[in-house]
Amino acid sequence: MIATGMLVVMAGVFLVARAFRDIHPAMGYVLAFSEAAMVGGLADWFAVTALFRHPLGIPIPHTAIIPMNKDRIADTMAAFLQENFLTVPVISRRIRAMNVAQSLGEFLDPREEGGEGQSLRLRAGVANLFGDVLESLDPEKLGGLAKGALRTQLEKLDVAPLLGQLLGAAIADKRHMPLFEDFVRWAGGVLEDNEALIREMIHDRANAILRWTKLDETIANAILDGLYKLLAETVVIPDHPVRKKVEEGLEDLAHKLVHDPEMQATVNGLKLEILHNPAFARWLDGMWERGRAALLKATRNPHGALSGQFGESLGELGGALREDARLQHLVNRFARRTLVGTAIRYGEQIVRLVSETVRRWDAQTVTDRIEGAVGRDLQFIRINGTLVGGLVGVLIHLVDTLL
């Protein structure tokens, strides 16, 4: 409005100066200023407008530059991101100069920000910004990137030795026995719930003599009593043979998982079969959707997400990160390796995601977002063009008068 208003004022001054230019020689300078100011203002109006749309709706060549070159802008943004942010030297240099752990601690610790209210307001702003970015990205592309990365890492993971080490550690600490006892109790409950079915099976398989003499009932009672006794003794007696047999079997399984190539190949085959199973893909899709929805919900309600015991834990973690130099070193080293590794593995995919997301935007969306970001400065170009044009007009008129 200011830039357009100045252009209208210059037009009015031009008409008045033109009508009264013979009254005084100074009116020539006013006329030259207003005339050149109109030219400068109109030229800059055309230049600014041509960036975003066709001036006056006329399809003049090389106008509406941003809408017409949306895809090229997307590729340029992606290339700029990759060349200036996602290269290993840049990330290493930036992260080496930063104390990520201390910054994170100051962010999480409410004491550093002068109170919990200010801390939550800051976190709320960051959370909303993160939510806006997450919503603007293509969910299918982002989900495919996340699920693909997870599937790739799972395929590379050597599961068998890890399971063997976990099982061996559990056996060494006797942490497996409560689980075994719970299984035995569960088996006892299943046996009790299906006692009638077992009796019926024994009765159906007994011959006529056994049924006539009621020995089938005696046999069924003996079998059930024996099973109940075996299960009860297995739970109660610490050195029961069944316990020892199970423990020996688990120890042998843990040893094979760590040292037996054949067992490792079998486990790896089962892992790959599960990963390529359509049911696993559906489960992964559901997990991604639930995780994304929960993340968006948390970003839209950061106060609720950061309150209570969880918020207190975050505050304690922030204090430790700010004060513990050894913890800072560990976190900074982990952050450096993680960011560099991410840039190496997924840099091209991240850049492609940005490019394809911008390409998916319609031309009007791109135009509105860029114009909203830089439009104010562009209007100052119009204002400056009007003033500079007027001053140049006065200068030209002065030179013309002197000559």
Descriptive notes:
It is a single chain. With 403 residues, the protein is mainly alpha-helical. Among the domains are: 107 residues, no CATH class; 118 residues, no CATH class. 85% of the residues lie in helices and 0% in strands. The protein is built from 20 helices and no strands. Helix 4 runs antiparallel to helix 19, helix 7 crosses helix 16 and helix 14 packs across helix 15. The longest helix is centred in the C-terminal third of the chain and has 40 residues.
Count of DSSP-assigned helices: 20
**Dominant shape:** elongated
Largest sheet: none
- What value does the average pLDDT take? 77
- Category by helix and strand content: mainly alpha
Radius of gyration (CA) equals 38 Å
Give the end-to-end Cα distance, rounded to a whole number of Å: 39 Å
Low-confidence regions: none
The run of helices and strands is HHHHHHHHHHHHHHHHHHHH
Q: What is the share of helical residues?
A: over 70%
Beta-strand residue fraction: under 5%
Total DSSP E strands: 0
Q: Could you give the topology of this structure?
A:
Elements lengths: L1 H18 L6 H27 L12 H4 L1 H15 L3 H9 L3 H9 L7 H21 L2 H18 L2 H14 L3 H18 L1 H11 L2 H5 L2 H22 L4 H19 L1 H15 L2 H23 L1 H4 L2 H16 L1 H36 L2 H40 L1
Helix pairs in contact: 1-2, 1-20, 2-20, 4-19, 5-19, 6-18, 7-16, 8-19, 9-14, 10-13, 11-13, 14-15
Task: Please tag this protein with its features.
mainly alpha; elongated
Structure in a nutshell:
85% of the residues lie in helices and 0% in strands. The protein is mostly helical and 403 residues long.
